[in-house]
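batch job 7 of whatever, protein = Cyclin-like protein
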Amino acid sequence: MPVPTDVSSETPEPPRKRQRTLYEASTQYRNWRFSTAQLSRIRASLNEAAVAAIRNTFEADLPGSSSDISFLNADEECLLVKLYATKIPQLCAHFGFPEEVEATAISYLKRFYLKNTVMDWHPKNVMLTALFLAAKTSNQPIPIDAYTSRIPKTSPSDVLDLEFLVAQSLGFEFTIWHSYRALWGIWLDIQSLPDHPKDSIAEIYNTAKSHARAARLTDAELIYTPSQIALAAFSLASPNLAALWAHAKSSDSVLQVIEPIKQMILQDSRTPDVEAVRNVDRRLKLCKNPEKVVGSRVYLAKKAEEEKVAAAKRAKKAEEIRKTMEENDPFGEHIADKKKLDDAVNRALEDDD
């Protein structure tokens, strides 16, 4: 039987893996994207742990003292954080910071409270620190004295004391991928389409930008990609143009993906009711972790214990230095440089590390 000559003996090549986008290689994609359910669990878990720890602190100081305290729940914590997020655009306008600083500071604030609770760290000072840090990471640095001198009732220590904590809570991952940049790209793409409305395109873009800014007060950036948020903002401004762009990119299915984002922007971006937030803030004064309240009995006791531990650490270090230097002197203590030894020991006693 003749062998067919049209059958190739070569093994077909395996399908190529899709190349990752730059965004998919980012820390934002890897570490700061969650589902709605995951965000709820994270916040509830943080809140429950904080309430338990703070209740124990109150009880250890004065048994029964926590029974009448109304602790904040996770939703109330989010409400307070959201109010201070709305203050960032006002401060950016005050300092003349560009949009990148504003968007970055809001992202830092939201990320911080996925690792911490308002009952430990009040959002006011965290917000000011997040903005100061965002100015630096966005290449818009401002001297700390110039910064705090233009904010009433704020000292440099209010910001600097929290700067490392904020950076640590961010995992030292400072780069943020923002939806307003993706929105700019979509706008440029649309202008290259043959059927785009030339007269109203600028107005549509400005409306879309306002929706993208409103999205910053929601959880959108913690759930969706910047390009999805940008397209949702554009769709709110002009559904037809958004659909035209998606079709041109052969991505019609994305229109279904952005529907929940559009609803989130419309429903969750409203500024919190001021009176409701005041009530939360009043209760926070009563349920704040006393270990963080400067001057409180628990705070002073904790500081005294920390100083006791630090003093013991310094003394141990000084003794180790004395012993090492004496052991390494072959002629004994009488010929050793006593002044050099004493200086080394004194430096160890003064060193907090």
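notes: The radius of gyration is 28 Å.
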